[in-house]
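Subject: design request, 368 residues
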């Protein structure tokens, strides 16, 4: 029997009554756009993260777009980010006519290397956008210090790290703006697209709320150009139901991730076949949006696991600077060697809060 990579069915069964009750309330009141559940979710999420404002939006990609629009980023500007992430990070920068300026990653965390950021800053730099990859925050204090020195805002792309902490503070509350995704497979996921923005800046929050609804500050009055970036009320209702046991799910993910690392580190393998398990910095906790290891001969390993009924995924096989969509920016192979090396070796294993010890043992046995 195949092990699910992400087990949303079992999660739904555990929350079925709460989810159905929440959805039924929306069906009864009929406010499918910007209904009361959206405001309730924003209040709950802001309190969870520990910031003044949460703005629920239509997707994690749109949240990045809205944040940059609110900061006035546009044609000819530059935004510093990592090449080792999902394309949405660089894509939203390019969509605004700005240039994604990539900086190589730390080889242990896979997050942007703060020591390489300052040399990438130019007179055109308008923001720094670190990604908290695989569920672990980037080194935000170091990044914020560089940003403060140069008068730049920081947008944390926390699409994979909602629920994680950095030095005791929650992801999304660590910089000028925090951005996350509620894609179904995320640690906190809806049943469709969704996302949220977080900030303590009152003015910035006001602008982001306006951009979310076509730049509107009141009905049919548009002081700025915006987008249709609203979160559906039904998605907010689902997220509210899931939020009730989110702390338990985060704890489960952390326990399963730690157990994976222990079991894989105990396995006897030759140096050439060594498995590199995730490094979680001592100041961090991870929500393990993915449990990602490095292996040699990844294709062979993936085929072996597949034959044993174990699905895998690669996050991400091609770094952004080598994606054809970004050819116009002039990057080439060899520009970011650490990201390129990681893209050829990483492989993600089944990871979700419902993963049993028995299934985890099967995964480990197939790897070793």
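Subject: RE: design request

Done. Sequence follows.
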């Amino acid at each position: 029997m195949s092990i699910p990579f992400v087990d949303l069915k079992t999660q739904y069964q555990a929350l079925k009554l709460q989810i159905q009750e929440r959805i039924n309330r929306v069906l009864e009141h009929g406010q499918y756009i910007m209904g009361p559940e959206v405001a309730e979710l924003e209040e709950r999420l802001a309190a969870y993260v520990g910031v003044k404002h949460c703005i629920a939006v239509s997707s994690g990609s749109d949240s990045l777009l809205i944040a940059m629009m609110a900061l006035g980023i546009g044609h000819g500007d530059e935004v510093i980010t990592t090449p080792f992430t999902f394309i949405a990070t660089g894509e939203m920068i390019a969509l605004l006519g700005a240039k994604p300026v990539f900086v190589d990653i730390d080889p242990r965390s896979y997050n942007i290397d703060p020591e390489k950021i300052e040399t990438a800053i130019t007179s055109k730099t308008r923001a720094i956008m670190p990604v908290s990859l695989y569920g672990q925050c980037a080194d935000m204090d170091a990044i914020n210090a560089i940003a403060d020195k140069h008068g730049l805002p920081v947008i944390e792309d926390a699409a994979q790290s909602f629920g994680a902490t950095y030095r005791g503070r929650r992801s999304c509350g660590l910089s000028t703006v925090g951005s996350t995704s509620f894609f179904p497979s995320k640690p906190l996921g809806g049943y469709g697209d969704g996302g949220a923005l977080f900030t303590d800046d009152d003015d910035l929050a006001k602008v982001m709320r306006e951009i979310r609804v076509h730049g509107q500050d009141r009905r049919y009055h548009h002081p700025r150009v915006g987008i249709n970036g609203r979160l559906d009320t039904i998605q907010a209702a689902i997220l509210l139901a899931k939020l009730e046991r989110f702390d338990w799910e985060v704890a489960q993910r952390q326990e399963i991730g730690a157990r994976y690392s222990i079991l894989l580190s105990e396995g006897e393998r030759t140096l050439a076949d060594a498995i590199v398990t995730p490094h979680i910095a001592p100041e961090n906790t991870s929500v393990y949006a993915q449990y990602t290891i490095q292996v040699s001969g990844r294709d062979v390993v993936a085929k072996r696991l597949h034959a044993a009924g174990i699905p895998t995924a690669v996050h991400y096989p091609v770094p952004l600077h080598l994606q054809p969509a970004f050819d116009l920016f002039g990057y080439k192979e060899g520009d970011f060697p650490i990201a390129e090396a990681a893209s050829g070796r990483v492989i993600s294993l089944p990871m979700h809060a419902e993963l049993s010890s028995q299934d985890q043992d099967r995964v480990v046995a197939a790897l070793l």
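The first helix runs from residue 8 to 29.
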